[in-house]
Amino acid sequence: MNMRKLLFVGLSSLIIAGVMAPAVTMAQSPNSVEEIKSRGKLLAGVKFDTPPFGFLGEGNKPTGFDLDLLTKVAEKIGVPVEFVSVTSPTRIPMLVSGNVDVVAASMTHTIERDRTIDFSITYYTGGQALIVKAGSDITGVDSLAGKQVAVQQGTTLEKNIAAAAPEAKLVGFKDYNSAWLALVQGRADALTGSLNILQGFAKENKDYQIVGDIFSSEPFGIGVRQGDSALRDIINETLQDLWKSGEYQKLYAKWFGEEPRVPLEIWP
């Protein structure tokens, strides 16, 4: 075989290996919309223990702000929605594994989480606060030194309170109900969480009160699998349509008893 033929064979091998092979093996970006339509329902991961975002209402029926928004997303796709219970530790693994198509579970959009999943635009902006039993000597994060503070494990709440009150003794729980029970039973001196969630506990339990100022900003996003831009686009369009029509504002007032403090991001 002469040198010219050897060069031709070598170049051909490089073209096949370097150009054609990636075109064959390159993984396609996920697109769950067609799968959702084929299945005939949207599988939505929500919390069942976090009022007013997601909880079990009358007759143990799942209800809440997050669920109302996901119902609207399902309507835009043209299918009904099935709600699947998730917790803070399980919501991202269940999404990534395909057990649910989407997650709306009072989940703060962070850089760290953005490396694993994709998020919608911010649909709710809240802040972190403290709730204590009436008469407590705790007046805010500055008086938590040596105090037992209940908090959800694996959340931004846990990181925020550790930074804001480094001398507090943090006690982690898997969900809000477990953390709340620890406060009621005296196993914790305070409970920290999103303001609107704590307001829900205070409203139903007059012996407890929210103290101090908000000490974080929590932009909540709806999660989809990384690269699932088709579903993310539908979610974003739904949220913006709801805002433009005024329906978002009505849903917000229904669950939080006030007008939204932060407007949604609206694209032209």
TrEMBL record:
Q: TM segments?
A: none
Q: Which residues form the signal peptide?
A: 1-21
Q: Where is the Ionotropic glutamate receptor C-terminal domain?
A: 41-258
From the UniProt record, which GO molecular function terms apply? Answer: ligand-gated monoatomic ion channel activity
Q: Keywords of this protein's UniProt record, alphabetized?
A: Signal, Transport
Q: Which Gene3D superfamilies match?
A: Periplasmic binding protein-like II (3.40.190.10)
Return one Gene Ontology term, BP aspect. amino acid transport
Q: Which GO terms describe its cellular component?
A: extracellular region; membrane; outer membrane-bounded periplasmic space
Outline the extent of the Solute-binding protein family 3/N-terminal domain: 41-259
Domain of life where this protein originates:
Bacteria
Q: Which InterPro entries match?
A: Bact_solute-bind_prot3, Iontro_rcpt_C, SBP_3_CS, Solute-binding_3/MltF_N
Family of the protein in this entry: Belongs to the bacterial solute-binding protein 3 family.
Q: What is this protein called?
A: Amino acid ABC transporter substrate-binding protein
Q: Which organism is it from?
A: Agaricicola taiwanensis
For this protein's source organism, the top of the classification is:
Bacteria, Pseudomonadati, Pseudomonadota, Alphaproteobacteria, Rhodobacterales
